[in-house]
Predict the structure.
Amino acid sequence: MLLVQGTAARHLHWGERLLSLLATSFDVVAYDHRGVGDSKPADAPFGIEDLADDAAALLDELGWPRAHVVGVSMGGLVAQELALRHPDRVETLLLGCTHPGGAGSPSAVPDALVSATVRGDAAATLRNVFRAGVKDPERVRPQAWEEYGAAALTRPVPARTTTLQISAVAGHSTAERLHRITMPTHVLHGDTDRLVPVEAGRALASAIPGACLTVLSAGHFFWLEQPERTAELVEESISRASGADAHR
């Protein structure tokens, strides 16, 4: 299983709880995009297509002919492009809190993130982003903030890389090609997502032939809020797809 994270995020942003749950059933690889962590620096502009090719190259390096691909936020755009550019490499596709890009899609920099920024205070900004990313900051499980904060503070994503990622998202669209996605697809979205409205998830699911949609009682960071439910949905989706293939 290949896990693809979003803008300004590292592989640690999946959270230890979800990773440990998925690892009980799958060989899991969560990686960092170019310009993030120990990956190759991002010295020049790139597109979502480049990030999708990076993912395919990683599968080559792993020796995996195919993988179940889970992508969230910007990582969902990368996962869509991977499925379109390299369809033979994607066994099942799980897209979380994302959209197809193009006209009418959410802004590359949502108002919620702009308002969360506290100039000169990275820690306060980080806390505000987390609060904007969950459904109810006062009731979210304490470990969610601990996992998010630890991931964000351990080798933070360089500001230039984040800017390049935002530019890549802003210039990307799969909207006119989604009908070409043929592998089993499941779209997950929080009902109180302030960064990518749930309507975008509904539109995405309706545009992909046969795609399933699950709306969770959560915000943008649904996998941190509900790791057990997220792992359950991932396993159910893959099991359902495997069963369907067996009966063809």
Observations:
- Strands lie at 2-4, 29-30, 67-72, 90-96, 185-190, 212-216.
- Residues 105 and 115 are 20 Å apart (CA to CA).
- The two ends are 23 Å apart (CA to CA).
